[in-house]
Amino acid sequence: MQTGNEHSGHRGRMRARIARTGLKSLTEHEILEVLLYYAQPRGDTNSLAHRLLDRFGSLARVLDADPASLQQVDGVGPSVAFLLNFSAQLSARYFQDKTQARPIFGSNRAFVAYIQTLFLAEVREVVYLVCLDNNMRLINCLKLAEGARAEVAIPLDEVVRTAVSQGARNVVLAHNHPSARLKPSDADLRLTQQCLAALALVNIELLDHFIVCGSDYFSFAEHSYMDAMRKSVGLVNPA
After folding, report:
1. Are residue 42 and residue 17 in the same domain, yes or no?
2. CATH number (domain holding residue 71)
């Protein structure tokens, strides 16, 4: 049986190892074990790290899990669940801040790389409006709405009001599908067309609408939906 001093010595050795080599020398369960130190100041966190990985399958899935699911694992209380959930949100915020230094978007790849960071820690459906100037430079990215795990309501007037208030000349809508269904719904299609028409009245162009589902995404522009919608609302002359 290990004593508190033995655990303390182990934790010190793990911290020294990370100081020397960073996380690259640690396995997933060791990374999780160290993270758990800060929710469990004493005792062995190694076995709990293994139980979490056995339950969810990977470090990313542990951090993405909602607090209620986490607390179904033996040994996970409110403090551990909070720490894991907070760590995922902190990571997402870190990546957002790294990419939000007013970047210029010149390709769909850049849009996708930026937008996917918005949903890293989201378990509910949320909607963002990315506001850009004439030169495709980021003005701001704002969360418009959030809802249940599989649905969210987006007021059309809120989309227009937000875009105008930010001085945007171009905008991109983005929302996630936590249900793992990537295909746009009929409601997604209607909303996109309505936003396109309403924004055009105030001289703002809706460039695209992205649906994000994990590492996958669906771009309305890539699938020619935006061009078809522009024709349907009379923003371009039909061929």
Report:
1. yes
2. 1.10.150.20
Contact 231, 238 (CB under 8 A): yes
Residues 87 and 124 in one domain: no
Residue scoring higher pLDDT (18 or 166): 166
pLDDT tens column, 178-235: 876 788 888 889 989 999 999 999 999 999 999 998 788 999 999 999 999 999 888 8
Range of 165's domain? 102-232
Q: How far apart are CA 174 and CA 219, in angstroms?
A: 9
Looking at the DSSP bridge assignments, the partners of residue 128 are 143, 174
Task: Answer left, alpha or beta for residue 102, where phi above 0 means left and psi between -120 and 50 means alpha.
Answer: left
What gap in Å lies between CA 156 and CA 70, rounded to an integer?
36
Q: In whole angstroms, give the CA distance from residue 86 to residue 222.
A: 34
Any idea which residue has 């909070």 for tokens? 82
pLDDT, tens digit, for every residue of 77-91?
999 999 998 888 888
b (16+ CB within 10 A) / e for 105-141: beeeeebbebbbbbbbbbbebbbbbbbbeeebebbeb
